[in-house]
Automatic annotation (TrEMBL):
Domain Right handed beta helix: 102-273
SMART domains: PbH1
UniProt superkingdom: Bacteria
Pfam families: Beta_helix
Xref: InterPro entries: Beta_helix (IPR039448), PbH1 (IPR006626), Pectin_lyas_fold (IPR012334), Pectin_lyase_fold/virulence (IPR011050)
Signal sequence, start to end: none
Protein name: Nitrous oxide reductase family maturation protein NosD
Amino acid sequence: MMRSVAPGESIQRALDEAGPGARIVLAEGVYAESVWIRHSGVTLTGAGLGRTVLVPGDGVPPDVPSLHDATADVVSGVTVYGQAVSDVRVEGLTVRGFSGAGVYAHSVDRVTLHEVAAEDNGVWGVYLRESTACRVTGCRARGSQYGGAALSFCPLSDHLVAGNETHDNAFGVFIDNSSGVRAVRNTCHGNAIGMMLLNQVYDGEPDGGVTDCLIAGNDLHGNGLASGAEPDGLGAAGPPISGVGLALIGTHRVVVVDNHIHDNHPSGESVMGAAFVMSSSQGWGGDDALDNHVSWNRVHGNTPLDYLLGVDLERQHFAANTADKGDPSDARGWRL
């Protein structure tokens, strides 16, 4: 069933009345409400980025699940959550100014976000958690306290994060204890860290790990914001980070190829001392970085270092990477 909605009409009412398999088409304009997609097979389509805009209003669906690890008064723009929900697509709209996430999906099988702009949302831009076959393509995310685009505790499946632009977030793209992710052709700039893959175990969370991912063809530059330095500030829950393009922390079997990591300069304290960092997370309940393949990457013009490899080099494969300065300076597969 297809339903059309115009500004001033309720998106939530259309979703609830149409039920599973519905296509909800939003006309150009501003809609002051948050919405909850709780049925399978739903497509929510706007008129395009900046043309259909969702902003906070009085319309909050009753009993909508709260954003994970947030208080009940935190409101997300679009929530996709429900028992056995699958095959949901959100596309062609801007979600702006919510106190939670722009788009929050939890426990969904096959969720796609395409050409969605998440702007100035309080916690996350796009946050997909404990879901399978996630697709985030052609999206834009800026101005979030934590990740612009994040996959968190998403189990090994065919995930795709492609062709997105993220800036002015703590983490541009955050692959948090998620596996099977292909992150390709993204542009991450003006964040504290452009892209981070983190294997770390948390009390009360599902099993973690980051394995079998592909990081290819990304442009990670100009990431110089400072996060983790101020209570309730940018990236407040994490350690101080600034000036990092790409970090692999405790990852296994991740392929990093043909990325351009350049002109990243810290503006504050950082626990990561280079634009490209590989390290263990064993001290945080994770693991050593093992069996990663890093090839044909260009890492130049960064401070204080282009790369810092705090891992067992014999358990990684490096080939044909170029940089200006790094540690160790004689690492095999790096040409200075």
